[in-house]
Design brief:
Blueprint: E1 4-7, E2 10-13, E3 18-24, E4 33-39, E5 46-52, E6 58-60, E7 68-73, E8 78-83, E9 92-99, E10 112-113, E11 117-122
Parallel strand pairs: 2-11
Antiparallel strand pairs: 1-3, 3-8, 4-5, 4-9, 5-6, 7-8, 9-10, 9-11
Length: about 120
């Protein structure tokens, strides 16, 4: 079983930046796709970004393109989400996830999840 733990959330003003981290309990090279999702109160869980295990392919939701960057440091079993130019509509609980198959934007197709970290962006 793979354990995922997110950190780095908090309260930030609009236009500010945060970096989220997702640490895995063991090496995750066998999980060929990893990603970030978010869920706001009363909303469906939403795809944010995904990355291949080697980091050579990345994917972003239209709502975050140009503002967020996903990256992976395999030696540390850690994935990051750098969030710049934050907007109030980015407020949500952010989750990291992994799956053994290829890229997917569907939350239900991921097998492993962290506990989530709260990101709140004030106006």
């Amino acid at each position: 079983q793979v354990q995922l733990v997110e950190s780095g959330g908090g309260l930030v003003q609009a236009g500010g930046s945060l970096r989220l981290s997702c640490a895995a309990s063991r090496r995750t090279v066998s999980l060929h796709a990893k990603g970030w999702f978010r869920q706001a109160p009363g909303k469906e869980r939403e795809f944010v970004a995904a990355i291949s295990w080697s980091g050579d392919m990345t994917y972003y939701a239209d709502s975050v393109k140009g503002r967020f960057t996903i990256s992976m440091v395999n030696a540390r079993n850690t994935m990051y989400l750098q969030m710049n130019s934050l907007k109030p509509e980015d407020t949500a609980v952010y989750y990291c996830a992994a799956r053994p198959g290829g890229y997917s934007i569907i939350a239900g197709e991921y097998d492993y999840w962290g506990q989530g970290t709260q990101v709140t962006v004030s106006s």
